[in-house]
C-alpha cells in the first residue's frame, strides 16, 4: 500500500468509481485528464484506477485535483480494440479491463467506466458480474438528444446482442424505465416499442408479442406504455424510453450520429462560404456553442450495460477528456442513486409478477 | 376525347408521366401546382393526370404552363391514408391510384408518381405491374444526402417488406446498382451491406450469406462490393448504395429524418436567441438557404419502387408543390434514361448468372 492509498482511504464517504485507464484510442493520459476534470468539479468522487502502475502514478501526480482521490491498481496487460471477446474471456485476467470490472464485483466500487473494446467489455462483464436473476440478455442503453423536457431519451439495446425475443424486450422495457427514473429523474417514464409503423398489426411476430407483454406489465412496473413508435420518435417526444433489439438499435444509433455529423460539417462549410457568412458565424458564436453543447455527442458519452450484478459505463473509444468526464459524471449519478440495487429489485419483482400472471392465466384457462 | 387531349397528342416526343392527383395530405391542388412547376422548367414532360375530371380540369385550367401538356383520366374514388392495402387490392378499381398505375401497365406512361398511401401503392403496383422475372421481393429505394461527390447515396429497402433473405439482398444490390447508374450517373457504383460492424464474422446468418453472395456476383454485375457498412456510412462516403432489409431501412430512414429535423429546429432556436444571433441569421441567410437546399427532404422527395414491370415513384404524403416537383423531376430522369428496361435486363442477366454459378458449383462439387 502506498501513501496515496492511505490518503485515499481517509477520503471516506466518497462515491468510488472503478476506472479502466487503458484501451481507449487516446491512451491513459486522456483518461487521467478526464477524471481530473471530474474530481475538480465534484469533491464527492473517489477513483480506483486500473493500469500499469508506474505510468499511471506519473500521470496522476501531475494533476492536483487528483491528489488523495485515486488508488492505483497495477494491471500490465491491455485489451486492444482488435482483441476478440472470446480471447479476452480466456486470457484477459491480467488486463486493466478485467481488474476494473472486478472492483465492482468485489463491492469496492459501485460503477465501472471503460473506453475499451465494447465486445470484450460486455463479455468480461457477463463473466465477472453475472446476469441479474430474471435477465436473459443484458442490454446497452444510451441517452439520445430529444424534444422532451428532460432533453434526452433512453434507447436500448444499442448493441449488446443482435437478437431479442418478446421476453427480452419486456426486460429492456423494465430496465430502461429504471434507468430513466434514476438517470433522468422521470417518476413515470413513457415506454415505446420501436417498429416500422404505429398500427398494431405491423411488424415482426416477436414485436406483436412484445407489444402485448409490455402493455400487460406496465401498470405493475410503474411506467406508461405508448405502444409502437417509429424511428422519428427516437429524438422525439412521444416517449422517454425506446425499446428495440441490439441490431436495430445499433443501426439507428450510428445513423443518427452520422446524420448529425454530416449536418455539422455542412453547417461549418456554410459559415465559411462568404465574408458575410463568416461575419455571421462570429456573431452567432455564443448561440452556436450553446446548440453544440446540447447535441455534442461527447456530452452524453456513455452507454450503460444493464442487467448485470453491477453497472458498467462504456465510454466512446475515441473520447477526449471532456468525453471521459461526461462518462464519469453519468457513472457518479447512477452510483449515488443506488441504481444497481433499484434495477435489480425492479427486475426481480417484475419477473415474479410475470410468473404470477402466467400462472393466473394458465389456471383460468385464459390463453388470449 | 377533349380538345385538351388533342393538344396533348400533338406534343409528341415528350416523356409522359402518369400522375395520381389524389391521396396526398394536401389534396389535388398541391399536386397540380407541383406538376405545373415541373412543366414550366422542363418543356419535355407531358402528364396523364388521374382523379375526378371536373375538379382537375378547373385546377389545370388555372395553370398556364400546363396548357396542352395534360391529359385527364377520370377516376372518382380515392385511396385514403387509412385504407388497408388488402381492401384496396380488392375494391380499388375506380381509384385514381389504380388508374395511374394502369397507365404504366399499358405503356402509355413510363413512370407513375403518387403521394398516396405507401402500403396500398405497393400492393396495387405488385398486382397491376407484376414482379420482374427473377425478383422475389420488390424494394423501395430512396436517395440520402451524403458526403459522396454525387451528394446522395441510394438506400434500399426502406419499407416494401420487413423481411429479406440473402437472395433478396442480392437482388437489392443489383437493383440499387442499376438505380445509382441511371439516377446518379455512377458508372460503377460501390455497394455496401448494412450491419452492426464491418468485421466479416458479425451480424445475422442471412447477412453473412448475403455478404458472400453479393461479393461473388459483383464482377459480373458491374459494381464494386465494399462489404459490410454501418449506420454511420449511410450519409457517408464508404459506398454509394446501402443494401438492407425493409425493417432496418425504414427505422434508419426515419431516425435520420427525425435527427435532421431536431437539429434544424434547435438551429432556428439558436438563431433567434439573442439580438446578435438574430443579426447573424440575416447575414448568414444565403449560406443557410444553400445548406437547407442541400439537405431539404423535399428536394430528394421520392421513394422508387424497384423490381416491377415499370417504375413507380412514391412522393411523401405531406409533399408540398416543391416536393411534388422534385418527385416529378426524379420520375422524368428515370423515364428518360430508359431505367425500367435497363433494370429488367440487369436483373434477368444476373438471375441467369446466379443460376449458372449455382450449376457450376454443383457440378464441380464446390459448395463453399
Can I get a quick summary?
2 copies of one chain form a homodimer. Chain A is α/β, with parallel strands linked by helices and 368 residues long. Chain A is built from 13 helices and 11 strands.
Structural account:
2 copies of one chain form a homodimer. Chain A is of the alpha/beta class. Chain A has a domain at 1-130 and 308-337: Isopropylmalate Dehydrogenase. Helices cover 50% and strands 15% of the residues of chain A. Chain A has an 11-stranded mixed β-sheet with strand order 3-2-1-4-11-10-5-6-9-7-8, sandwiched between helices. In chain A, helix 5 packs parallel to helix 6 (118-129), helix 7 packs across helix 8 (205-221) and helix 7 packs antiparallel against helix 13 (339-364). The termini of chain A are far apart. The interface between A and B is large, with 57 and 57 residues.
Salient structural properties:
globular, 11 strands, homodimer, 50% helix
The count of DSSP E runs of length 2 or more, i.e. the number of strands of chain A, is 11
What CATH architecture of the domain at 1-130 and 308-337 in chain A would you give? 3-Layer(aba) Sandwich
Main sheet summary of chain A: 11 strands, mixed
CATH homologous superfamily caption of the domain at 1-130 and 308-337 in chain A: Isopropylmalate Dehydrogenase
Number of helices of chain A: 13
**What is the highest CATH level, the class of the domain at 1-130 and 308-337 in chain A?**
Alpha Beta
Rg of chain A (C-alpha, Å): 22 Å
How much helical structure, as a percent, in the residues of chain A?
A: 40-55%
How would you state the average pLDDT of chain A, rounded?
87
CATH topology of the domain at 1-130 and 308-337 in chain A: Isopropylmalate Dehydrogenase
How far apart the termini of chain A lie comes to 63 Å
Q: List the quaternary state of the chains.
A: homodimer
GO molecular function (chains A, B): phosphate:acyl-[acyl carrier protein] acyltransferase activity
Catalytic activity (chains A, B): a fatty acyl-[ACP] + phosphate = an acyl phosphate + holo-[ACP]
Function (chains A, B): Catalyzes the reversible formation of acyl-phosphate (acyl-PO(4)) from acyl-[acyl-carrier-protein] (acyl-ACP). This enzyme utilizes acyl-ACP as fatty acyl donor, but not acyl-CoA.
GO biological process, one term (chains A, B): phospholipid biosynthetic process
Amino acid at each position: 500500500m502506498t501513501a496515496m492509498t492511505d490518503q485515499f482511504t481517509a477520503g471516506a464517504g466518497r462515491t468510488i468509481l472503478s476506472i479502466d485507464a487503458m484501451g481507449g484510442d487516446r491512451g491513459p493520459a486522456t483518461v487521467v485528464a478526464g477524471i481530473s476534470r471530474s474530481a475538480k468539479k465534484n469533491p464527492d468522487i473517489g477513483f480506483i484506477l486500473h493500469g500499469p502502475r508506474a505510468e499511471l502514478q506519473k500521470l496522476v501526480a501531475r494533476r492536483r485535483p487528483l491528489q488523495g482521490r485515486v488508488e492505483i491498481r497495477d494491471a500490465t496487460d491491455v485489451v486492444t480494440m482488435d482483441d476478440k471477446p472470446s480471447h479476452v474471456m480466456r486470457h484477459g485476467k491480467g488486463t486493466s479491463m478485467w481488474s476494473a470490472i472486478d472492483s465492482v464485483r468485489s463491492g469496492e466500487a459501485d460503477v465501472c467506466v471503460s473506453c475499451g473494446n465494447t465486445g470484450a467489455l460486455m463479455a468480461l462483464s457477463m463473466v465477472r458480474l453475472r446476469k441479474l436473476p430474471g435477465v436473459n440478455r443484458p442490454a446497452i442503453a444510451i441517452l439520445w438528444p430529444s424534444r422532451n423536457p428532460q432533453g434526452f431519451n433512453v434507447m436500448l439495446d444499442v448493441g449488446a446482442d443482435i437478437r431479442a425475443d418478446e421476453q427480452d424486450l419486456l426486460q429492456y422495457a423494465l430496465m430502461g424505465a429504471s434507468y430513466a427514473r434514476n438517470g433522468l429523474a422521470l417518476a413515470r417514464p413513457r415506454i415505446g416499442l420501436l417498429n416500422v409503423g404505429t398500427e398494431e398489426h405491423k411488424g415482426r411476430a416477436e414485436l406483436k408479442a412484445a407489444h402485448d407483454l409490455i402493455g400487460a406489465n406496465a401498470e405493475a412496473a410503474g411506467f406508461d406504455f405508448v405502444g409502437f413508435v417509429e424511428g422519428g420518435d427516437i429524438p422525439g417526444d412521444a416517449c422517454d424510453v425506446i425499446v428495440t433489439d441490439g441490431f436495430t438499435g445499433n443501426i439507428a444509433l450510428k445513423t443518427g450520429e452520422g446524420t448529425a455529423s454530416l449536418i455539422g460539417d455542412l453547417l461549418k462549410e456554410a459559415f465559411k462560404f462568404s465574408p458575410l457568412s463568416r461575419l455571421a458565424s462570429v456573431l452567432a458564436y455564443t448561440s452556436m456553442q450553446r446548440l453544440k453543447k446540447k447535441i455534442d455527442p461527447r456530452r452524453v458519452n456513455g452507454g450503460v450495460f444493464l442487467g448485470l450484478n453491477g453497472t458498467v459505463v462504456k465510454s466512446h473509444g475515441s473520447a477526449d477528456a471532456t468525453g471521459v468526464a461526461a462518462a464519469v459524471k453519468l457513472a457518479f449519478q447512477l452510483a449515488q442513486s443506488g441504481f444497481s440495487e433499484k434495477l435489480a429489485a425492479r427486475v426481480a419483482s417484475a419477473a415474479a409478477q410475470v410468473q404470477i400472471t402466467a400462472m393466473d392465466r394458465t389456471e383460468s384457462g385464459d390463453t388470449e
